[in-house]
Every structure is written in structure tokens, then in C-alpha cells.
Amino acid sequence: MNVIELGPGQEVGLPRVPIRVRVTSTSRTQARLDAIGAVGAHRISAGEIVVLPKGGQVQLSVAPAGGGAFAENDQVGLSLRAEGGKEQVEVAQSSVVSMNSARLAVLEIGVNLLVRATGPQRAPEWLASGINALRRCGVDERDRAEPGEWAMVVDGSASMLSLAGDGSLEELLRLVCGVLYGWTNRLPGLVLRTTTGPEVDVTAATRGPELELATLLAPAPAAWSRVAPAVRAGARKMDVVVLLTDGVPVDAAALSADLRTTKGRLIVVTTGRSRFSVGTRAASGDLPSWQEELAGLEPVAAQANGRVVALPTEPDPARGSVPRLVLDDEVTARFAAAMVAAPVTGWSAVDRSVGATDDGRGTW
Fold first, then answer.
1. What percentage of the chain reaches a pLDDT higher than 90?
2. What CA–CA distance (Å, rounded) separates 122 from 136?
3. Which of 148, 165, 169, 351 has a 20 to 30 Å separation from 213 between CA atoms?
4. Nearest Cα to 169, choosing from 340, 334, 322?
């Protein structure tokens, strides 16, 4: 057996055949291995997966099998072996102390197959509020919907962008991106912002060590909350689209119509008094119908691949009629739970589990 050892930043080619990947560890914490982005893979056990050589990028990440974070002195690596071949790659064990997940290597599957060791990569600091909310949410790893590659669409209407005045918009972006990063172990693959014309790609705002709010706010605001074209653009490239808006978009009916003809998933994050609210009395379902502010999103939530999560607001005396978001620890933990949990009824995830052969993308 030809054994090749890789440290962070090193890479090696392997035959384009099924690759058996196994966790290696000297720690007491049992690690779960995930092959994020794999198309056609088979799980052997919590810590072992066979990845089929189908095109694309596969991120090999580990997380504590029981949830939470890795303990002190925990070190984890990977062992990869080409099925039927003589090559074996050992990705060096590295410290993963206090991490709730860590990407250790990437498989680039094209004409050839390339293994690249990345080493544990910590999340950018600006994601901390969302990652911490996910840790507090109380939803066990086994009860979470299967994640996928995700895009974010930010409503660029004047009413939505008004939340930037007191910092609420920046807090919301940090929260949403942090929760999704903790869930999927990746930043959004695409970030779009609506304008008066075509949507604008502002992905660069999320790629630095800090969130670049100025990049996201740079395009002129739109007069109306028209979001369906941007959501379709995101869904053409990603498995999950997360829409950040306030209230009910003017083209909400188009969103629900699109969901009926696609396998893609849509999570609408919005504001307003509603049964969709988290951290409020409305969330228990006892809100009188005449007080419901988000009835226009009911058809979206009624679809198997649609979900609506609303954050509460409160009056801001310093800004007159402009409300501010309520983002205390209890609300953000409930928000994280609502974003990632796989419920018994209603919204359900398209099967993105290891072993699925469908790439999970829609036809928007």
C-alpha cells in the first residue's frame, strides 16, 4: 500500500474511482464525518463514507456525533483510500478544540480526482452570533434537516434597508449567515441584492474577515419589495435559497407558484406579527387572525419545500415609525431552531442525505 501523508495546503491526485473516507482520531469525542456536496455517496458508519466519483466539489468535514463542540485535546484527521487501488492518503490530525464542526479536506472531482488538505478552518469572527445561536438552539444534529449549498437574497427595498439605520440589518446578516454556516459548514455560495433593475451580485460582502455592509448597501434601493426574479436566479445555482425581507413581498404569490414546480428549497426570513414569529406569543399559535400580518406568505409555508421564519420587532422611539428587530439570546436561539429543524409536518427537506443520487436542485 502506497501511503501519502498530507498537511494543510498540500494536495495529491487519486484515480477517479470511489473513495473510502474514514475519520482518524485520538480524542474521546466520537466524530461524525460529512461529505458536503457529494452526489451519490454511501455512509458506512458515523465516521466512514464512500464518495462516488461524480463531478463537483465535496467538502469533508467533521463534527461531534452527539452535537456541541469538540473537547480539550481533541485531534481529528482523515484516511482516504481509492477503492481497488494501492493508494492511501492520510490527512494529518489537527486540533479541533471548541469547534462545533471543522472542514479538513476537499475533493475536487472532474476529469481527474484531487484531494486537498485544508486543515481545520475556523469561521470568520463576524459569524459568531449565529454560530452561538445554533449551539443554544437545542436541536440535536440528528433532528436537523439535511443542508445543501445555499444562496442568500437580500431584499433591497427602501423599507428593508431602513433597518441599517440602527444596526439591525447588520445584526440580522450576521445571525443568518452564522446559523447557516454552523449548519452547512460553508458561507453562502451566492449573495444577491434586489434593486430597481436586475439583481446585483454582492457575494464579495461575505468573503472578507469582516462583513462588508457597505458593499451590500451600495446599489440604489428599490421602491418595491420585488424578490421572485432574484430568488429564481439563486435557485438555479444552489440547493437552498434564504430570502431576507420585511413583511410580505409584493410578488409572494410567484414564490409559492415556483415552489410547486421545483425541488429547490426556500427559507423566507422576514419581520412582522405572525404565527411564524419566534420568541413571541404569536409563535404558540394563539394570535388572533385579524392581527396576522404575514398572511400573504401562508402559500409559501404550505409548500413542502417552503419555510417562513419571522423575527419580532419593537418600536424604536429614537427613529419614529421605523421599528427595530428584537435579537436577544432567547429569540436568536429560537430563530436558529426554526431555521434548521426538520419538523414532523409542513416544511420538509429535499433528500440531500449521503446516499442520495438526486442533486437536489430545482428548475427555476
1. 40
2. 19
3. 148
4. 322
